[in-house]
Amino acid sequence: MTLKRRRESPSVGFRPSIDTSSPAPLVRQLYLSLRGAIADGRLDAGQRLPSTRLAAKEWKLSRGSVAEAYEILVAEGFAVARHGSGTYIASGVPGGLSRIDHRNETIAYSTRRAVSDAATRVLTSGPSLEPQKVLPFVTGRIAHDDRTARLLNRIAGRHMNYAAEGYGDIQGEFELRSAIAAHLAASRGVRCAAEQIFITAGTQQALDLAFRVLMTPGDTAVVEDPCYPPARQCLALNGVKIIGLPVDADGIMTEKLAACSPPPTLFYVTPSNQYPVGSVLSLPRRLELLAYARENGCWIVEDDYDSEFRYDGHPIASLQGLDQAGRVLYTGTFSKALLPSLRIGYLVVPMDLVPVFRAVRPALDRCPPTFQQRVVGDFFNEGYFPAHLRRLRERLRASRDLLANLLKDRTSEHLGILLPDQGINLTVRSTGTWSNDTAVSQAALKKGVVVMPLSRMNVASSDTSRLLLGFSGLSEQEADMGTRILAEVFKRGDFRRTPDVG
């Protein structure tokens, strides 16, 4: 019997735009080049991409880099993987991207369409925040609460009066700011009045506003290493030079501050639950950081993104609450405690900086949306928030403990578990049986499980032995299935090799 030879796809002739002299990772360059070709129609729906072996040969890349780029395309919906057949261009383009019909194209771009250097660096570095599929251990999922949902729906009904709407206060609704000030004073020891609070569209807008006001392009910012990628990208867009200080079990290593010469303009830190490692900045180091900032005129932006979820022991006072010199700006969000779609975050600034923040805010955003603020404000002022948090904490504590116990039972040979006292993510470290977190992540994703490699968040560190797993919104069935799959991944895979540079 003569086997029918599989016909090669036209995509074999595709040549990606790869610049080996660029600091951008080769995987990121390949992914962006393929995504662009899919979006503008150069690669059509249904075409089979070259095998990783053939692509590596034709494109002069490692098979690992090609496989990782393909996996990103699959995860984001630009391609589909068919077992035993290959990877194919998806039939629909996600994210609202539209194809360009070259037969009807009338505009020819004869010159390079330039964008800023900062935008290019952000485009080609680090993981994006595009929507992820709902898979076991995805970070950032929300634990749904039926009682809270009913309350929010009822409160929302009373504010649906479009005839009465107009532009609101630059800083946000006073009732909500007052409620936040009272909540922060009681729960985090933050010392502030409603007049110092700016309501923002989540933490990211708060960071952007703070960085724009406090820093000039060319200034230096110190961040934790590893660091929350969108914060670094925000600094890069503002033209800031970034220096990373390593993190250990007691948070950012303040003994390394002596190497910062000259002193930086600003520190960006997550002291209560370091993202992504999960360590807590010790009190001696908090005091040392505050003293350094006071003596050298540095600003500190304290990101307390999940302060509501404390499971064991008493939280250490916020940096802002310990600050006697007015050098700390404090930011938080209700995206995890309520709903990310509400887009309610906040920024607490020193009183003397309020006028300049009020002057800059309208250039970025005239005012935060009033409807969501009134709903959340009533939810606070009518006393529903504390009970909601208690229910949510208990549910998240149970999810944390379930995941930790299953991992200990099934993966202890390979994973050392760092049980967090706070937050909605859990970090694991290699016991020595593997050293390539990216390869582990790729193998797990192929089986339908998401484990995030911390090496993608490194600033200067070369550590490739840690993974991040989310447990918020995690069901018992997902935890059971996900840990079984992860155990099988480690059993069948060899992840000792050095990661590809690209």
From TrEMBL:
Superkingdom as given in the UniProt entry: Bacteria
What's the family? In the C-terminal section; belongs to the class-I pyridoxal-phosphate-dependent aminotransferase family.
Which residues does UniProt call coiled coil?
Answer: none
A molecular function (GO) held by this record is: DNA-binding transcription factor activity
Can you give the residue ranges of the HTH gntR-type domain?
24-92
Q: Which stretches of sequence are listed as region Disordered?
A: 1-20
The protein here is known as Aminotransferase class I/II-fold pyridoxal phosphate-dependent enzyme
Q: Which CDD domains does the record cross-reference, listed alphabetically?
A: AAT_like, WHTH_GntR
The record's annotation in Pfam families points to: Aminotran_1_2, GntR
Instruction: Give the keywords, sorted.
Output: Aminotransferase, DNA-binding, Pyridoxal phosphate, Transcription, Transcription regulation, Transferase
Q: Which source organism does the UniProt entry give?
A: Ensifer canadensis
